[in-house]
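re: that complex we talked abt at group meeting.

here r the seqs, copy pasted straight from the sheet so there may be weird spacing, ignore it
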Amino acid sequence: MNNYFSINDIDSLGNWVNEAIEMKKNPLSNKTLGTDKTLGLLFFNPSLRTRLSTQKAALNLGMNVIVMNFTGEGWSLEYGDGTIMDQGTSEHVKEAAQVVSQYCDVLAIRAFAKLENREDDYNENVLKNFIQYATIPVINMESATGHPLQALTDAITITEHKIIDKPKVVLSWAPHPKALPQAVANSFVEMMQCMDADFVITHPMGFELASQITKKVPIDYNQENAYKDADFVYVKNWSSYNDYGKILEDNSWRITAQKMQLTNNAKFMHCLPVRRNVVVDDAVIDSKNSIVIKQANNRTYAVQLVLKKILENI
Ligand code: CP
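got the structure back, here u go
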């Protein structure tokens, strides 16, 4: 594998999930694979889990890691072709990507949606330009439209915790005071279509994700109905795709213990960070059915597997 841009770069999901679960039993089993190799992490947005799990995974493989928070520290980058750069941008991605490639062997980038212009975001300008001009493999640490490391983590976590072959999985929209991208939800929807799951999405009307991503996945606008018999409830807010970036603060969609009682003793999942008592009640996230910390732990093994596959190909 060269780049990890989306879950389409996974050639065999079942094998990858099994390999990650095996790797988790002995995380240092490939501790010399990355010797003398450097991973560069470029962050255009904040992070806790992605940054630390990726650093940890790289260290487990024996890699060196260098990190740059671009916002505030890096030059403002230009992505347009042929732009006369006499305004705010100081450096073109053409040079930046090639320069970073001189210092690193693998590059990982986080660049969220700006939620101003849907076409710009869904063109994946930042990540696609880095992939085009870098001369080293590039990993997506959450781009404008996808979070494939989180989705691989979620596949590992569901596989570990399912007690029937084909569990019912519900992706449940929840309220949030700020406009959030669709990236996590998009990649989760794509991942669930690759897994053996009875998958349903529930959200308020008008909060449909892109139809090219949801395809034929059933949507239930009645949250309580969707929760019936669920084995996993995966909660995430996203802002509107159709009325791009619009938010809805509808408290009636918050995840409560009462709603979880409608399920088949479902596990509660969330990628984190989460706003307690806005998205989900304390009683749910603190319950024994909440697997959010185990899910966060699996971030290390998802990205370690991706790094391993890239290092084996360098
Ligand atoms: N889930 C996730 O990507 O967390 P961070 O934003 O903290 O990296």
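couple things i noticed - The first helix runs from residue 13 to 25. The chain has 13 helices and eleven strands.
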